[in-house]
Amino acid sequence: MPKIVQLRGKWYRWVAFGIGCGFSPIAPGTVGTLLGIPVIFLFQFLPGIFWFLGALLVVALSILSSSRVSSELGVKDHPSIVIDEVAGYVFTMALIPVTWQTIIIGLLLFRVFDIIKPPPANWIDKKMSGGFGITADDLVAGVYANLTLQGILIFLG
Questions:
Q1: Pick from 144, 145, 146, 133: which is nearest to 63 by CA?
Q2: Quick check: 33 and 82 in contact, CB under 8 A?
Q3: Helices 36-43 and 48-73, interaxial angle, to 10°?
Q4: Does 6 map to a domain?
Q5: Residue 129: how many CA atoms within 13 Å on its side-chain side?
């Protein structure tokens, strides 16, 4: 049973728990992924290199904060840690035109790939620990979702 966690006093807890989104009693991963939507809206106004740097910052924050929180709690990947979902969703939307349709389809695709964890995400999830392991399987899911969404956009013209 995961330990009860609090946001109080540590900035990295706020980041790891997605400013509280991870405490949702229903589907905390999906609620955490929703936090990625304003991030994507913000990033759409950035020139390409700054979009890339912003994505790297989200990944770095995910690795750092989830590593510290999982270490404090003594668990591999606490279900309330959702910053990795935000990082994976940012990868999902990389180089994708931002519309309400792509945001919704991207979110659905990301959640499907994050839940089913196709290889190598399943291997990463089972074998890797710490912040890198927590984040990396979501980045793989994000890449799969991105490629699928790019295919859908090409197919639909």
A1: 133
A2: yes
A3: 160
A4: no
A5: 7
Report the alpha-carbon distance of residue 105 to residue 145 in Å, rounded: 9
Residue of 139, 49, 130, 140 whose CA lies nearest to 95: 49
Domain assignment present for 1: no
CA-based radius of gyration for the chain: 15
pLDDT in tens, 100-142: 999 999 999 999 999 999 999 999 999 998 999 999 999 999 9
Structural domain range at position 118: 11-156
- As for how many domains the chain has, the answer is 1
User: Which stretches of the chain score pLDDT less than 70?
Assistant: 1-8
Within-domain flag for 137: yes
Is the CB of residue 92 less than 8 Å from the CB of residue 138?
no
Q: Name the token pair of 81.
A: 């840690």
Q: What percentage of the chain's residues is helix, strand, coil (to nearest 5)?
A: 75, 0, 25
Instruction: Give the predicted TM-score (pTM) of the model.
Output: 0.92
Q: Is residue 113 part of a domain?
A: yes
